[in-house]
Design a protein that fits this description.
By secondary structure, the protein is an alpha/beta fold. The chain contains ten helices and 16 strands. The strands form five sheets. It has a seven-stranded parallel β-sheet with strand order 3-2-1-4-5-9-14, sandwiched between helices. Strands 7-6-8 form a three-stranded antiparallel β-sheet, with no helix packed on it. It starts with 8 loop residues before the first strand and ends in a 7-residue tail after the last helix.
Length: 352
C-alpha cells in the first residue's frame, strides 16, 4: 500500500457547508491546494454569512460544472449531501437526487478526468441500530422496536430469539448495515457507488462514517439540524431542552474539528487494499442524549432538560462507535474532549 506525501490539489464538494468548510480549512492548513464546490442548498444555507469567496457556486448534478471543477485535481473529498432525517417521505426525491445522482455524476466525471482518489463523507446512519449483545445468544441484530413497547416506556430493543433486553456495545465497520431512513439509504448508496467506481477505475475510496457531529457553524432551527443544535436553540430561547424517550439513548458526539482532521488523515493515508474502505469517525466516548443536554444546559446557564418519554418510532436507540480502525490505519484519534467541546459549543456561532 502506498501512502501519499506532500501536497495535492483537492476538490472539496460541499465546501461551504458546516463540515465541508472546516475540511477546507484543515486541508489548506496541511498545505494542500484546495478548491471548493457548493450549490448552497437552502436546507443548509439560509444566509450567506458562512460562504467563502473562494467557493465555486455550482451543483454536482451538473456534469459541465463538475468537469470544470475537476481540472488538474489530484483527489476529491466529497462532503456534498442533503443531510438529516428530513420531514417526511416527500423529501425522498430531493435526498436521492442530491446525494446519489450527485455522487454518480461526480464519479463519472472523475473517471473521465483520471482522478483516482476519493474520500467520501458517510454516516453512522448506515448501521441503523448499533451493536448489541444478548446474555444468552451473544451478538444479535435487533428488529425494529415494537410500538407496544414504546407506548409502555420500554425503549431498549429486545433479543429476537428470547425477547430479553439487550446490552448495547460499540459498532465496528464490519457490523451489518441496516439503513432505516431515506437519508440513511442514500448514504449507503453513496458507499456502494464509490466502491463500484473504485473497482472499475482502479481508484481508491475511503468512506468516513461520521457519528454525531457538532461544533462551530452548525445549522440551527431547521428540520435537518442535529440534536445538539436543536437543544442549543431551545436554551437560547430560555426553554428547557426536550429529551425524547428516557434520555438514555447512547451516542458518540464528535467535534467538527476532529472530523476535519479525520479527512486530512484519510487523504494522506495508504491506499485501501480493495475497493472502498470504511472508517468510523467518533470521539471514542459514549454519551447519552440526556447527559449531552445536561452538559450543554449547564454550560449555557439554562434550564435543566425535560425528559418527555415522547418517541419517534423510526428512531434508533443506541449507536456508538469503535474508532479503533481509524486510529490504527489512518492515525486518527479525536482530540476535543466532550466537556470542553460542549463548553465551546455553548457560545459558538451557528448558522441561522
Amino acid at each position: 500500500m502506498r501512502a501519499y506525501c506532500g501536497t495535492m490539489r483537492v476538490l472539496v464538494t460541499g465546501g461551504a457547508g458546516f463540515i465541508g468548510s472546516q475540511v477546507v480549512t484543515a486541508l489548506a492548513a496541511a498545505g494542500h491546494d484546495v478548491r471548493s464546490l457548493d450549490n448552497l442548498h437552502p436546507a443548509a444555507h439560509r444566509d450567506s454569512a458562512h460562504h467563502r469567496a473562494s467557493v465555486t457556486i455550482g451543483d454536482i448534478r451538473d456534469r459541465a460544472t463538475v468537469d470544470s471543477s475537476l481540472a488538474s485535481v489530484d483527489a476529491v473529498v466529497h462532503q456534498a449531501a442533503m443531510v438529516g432525517m428530513g420531514v417526511d417521505l416527500q423529501d425522498a426525491p430531493e435526498y436521492v437526487s442530491c446525494n446519489d445522482l450527485g455522487t454518480a455524476v461526480l464519479l463519472a466525471a472523475m473517471a473521465a478526468r483520471g482522478v483516482r482518489r476519493l474520500v467520501l463523507a458517510s454516516s453512522m446512519v448506515v448501521y441503523g441500530e448499533g451493536a448489541y449483545d444478548c446474555a444468552g445468544h451473544g451478538r444479535v441484530r435487533p428488529a425494529s422496536r415494537r410500538a407496544s413497547d414504546l407506548d409502555a416506556g420500554i425503549f431498549d430493543p429486545r433479543c429476537p430469539s428470547c425477547a430479553t433486553p439487550l446490552r448495547p456495545t460499540l459498532v465496528d465497520e464490519d457490523d451489518p448495515l441496516d439503513p432505516r431512513s431515506v437519508y440513511a439509504a442514500t448514504k449507503l448508496a453513496q458507499e456502494h457507488l464509490a466502491r463500484a467506481w473504485a473497482l472499475a477505475t482502479g481508484g481508491t475510496a475511503t468512506a468516513l462514517r461520521y457519528h454525531n457531529v457538532y461544533g462551530h457553524g452548525m445549522p440551527r432551527d431547521t428540520p435537518y439540524a442535529g440534536v445538539a443544535a436543536i437543544f442549543r436553540s431551545s436554551l437560547e430561547r430560555g426553554d428547557a431542552p426536550r429529551v425524547f424517550e428516557d434520555g438514555a439513548q447512547r451516542r458518540d458526539f464528535v467535534h467538527v474539528r476532529d472530523v476535519a482532521a479525520a479527512n486530512v488523515a484519510a487523504l494522506g493515508a495508504a491506499d485501501p487494499p480493495t475497493g472502498l474502505r470504511p472508517y468510523n469517525v467518533g470521539s471514542g466516548v459514549v454519551t447519552t442524549v440526556a447527559d449531552m443536554a445536561r452538559t450543554l444546559a449547564q454550560a449555557m446557564g439554562g434550564p435543566a432538560p425535560v425528559v418527555t418519554a415522547e418517541f419517534r418510532p423510526a428512531d434508533v436507540r443506541h449507536v456508538t462507535a469503535s474508532s479503533a480502525r481509524a486510529a490504527k490505519e489512518l492515525g486518527f484519534t479525536a482530540t476535543v474532549g466532550f466537556d470542553d467541546g460542549m463548553r465551546e459549543f455553548a457560545t459558538a456561532d451557528l448558522r441561522s
